[in-house]
Known about the structure:
Bound molecules: nicotinamide-adenine-dinucleotide, zinc ion
Order of helices and strands: EEEHEEHEHEHHEHEHEHEHEHHEHEHE
Low-confidence stretches: none
Radius of gyration: 20 Å
Structural class: alpha/beta
Oligomer: single chain
Helix content: 25-40%
CATH topology of the largest domain: Quinone Oxidoreductase, Chain A, domain 1
Largest sheet: 7 strands, mixed
Number of helices: 13
Strand content: 15-25%
CATH superfamily of the largest domain: Medium-chain alcohol dehydrogenases, catalytic domain
CATH class of the largest domain: Alpha Beta
Amino acid sequence: xxxxxxxxxxxxSVNKVAxxxxxxxxxxxxxxxxxxxxxxxxxxxxxxxxxxxxxxxxHENLGVVVEVGAAVERVKKGDRVCLPFNIGCGFCKNCExxxxxxxxTANPGMAGAAYGYxxxxxxQGGQAEYLRVPYADFNxxxxxxxxxxxxxxxxxxxxxxxxxxxxxxxxxxxxxxxVAIYGxxxxxxxxxxxxxxxxxxxxxxxxxxxxxxxLAEKIGAIPIDDSxxxxxxxxxxxxxxxxxxxxxxxxxxxxxxxxxxxxxxxMTMNNLVKSVRPTGRLGxxxxxxxxxxKAEDKLAKQGQIAFDMGLYFQxxxxxxxxxxxxxxxxxxxxxxxxxxxxxxxxxISHRLKLDEAPKAYDxxxxxxxxxTKVVLKL
Length: 378
Ligand code: NAD
Ligand code: ZN
């Protein structure tokens, strides 16, 4: 079959790769119909992970079940399913508690498993014609009858919609809250969409790319351009000098985007600490990496960021972080899409064929050029 493989930093290509097979009786095979390119893929693409050459990328997948292992009971051939990017077994201590992003079985000794990702287990990705789905009864989200019509919305349930929602859950966003969000990439925009769904009164999104800030404005958020104003001052002004009730970090280990001055990846965390009112909560879903060989700064090389612990303590803030436990949210978010109360596909800028994926990686990686979210159609 054809699949998008990693060859090295900023080098991916569509190659002939091995067809996936049912390996365990709990597996199914899915024919992929849509697979997205994610900001998380760029950590690998930009070369700051240990992902192996030849790995098929793609963890935001949706498709049709074409083959079913002997022990699979719930999922049937022909079902349209969306696949959470994290692979959970469903029965370990963490999965049992809903922390499926940290499954102890699917990638033993590591923190969680995913398709087509560095250090997340031996699983191939879905930017390809077919995908093997382990523990399929647990990992397949069945889609309703409008699955084809709303495929571009439902595919966002694989990752970034639940991830944005996770940011707002960790930050405990509730009715009437004001929310400061750093990063207006796909994840930050999904956090804003989620904050409104949870009843937030005021959502402020910080970035500097006009195309992304325009989308923020379109959904009713207040765009803050940090190339023009100090974002902390702007948030203070918008909240009567108190600071936002809740804060979300949707940037992560910096994208090496020189326009944000990203040499030392501490900017968003310290800005966030200053932007949220004392005793407020911070939800951090931007991915931070344990080490970055490319970083100039000695501490940054070890994956450490400068973080103003003194200010964080003084303000009595609390923070939670990590991969989104997609399974914990995707049913209810699916039902919001079906009910017409959520429409995450508003972030899509490009719908392309798999063969065009290398160009799409290049363009999406540049950011700020209108390539907000690419979905690959197979
Ligand atoms: P993205 O890189 O397209 O978006 C990041 C945005 O942040 C960009 O628009 C960039 O201009 C902006 N930005 C950079 N520095 C900033 C700063 N100092 N202040 C404000 N904005 C700044 O990627 P994305 O797809 O939106 O993903 C964002 C992050 O979320 C990535 O780190 C990604 O790996 C992570 N992620 C986490 C999970 C999870 O489960 N926790 C899932 C998916 C993605
Ligand atoms: Zn993703």
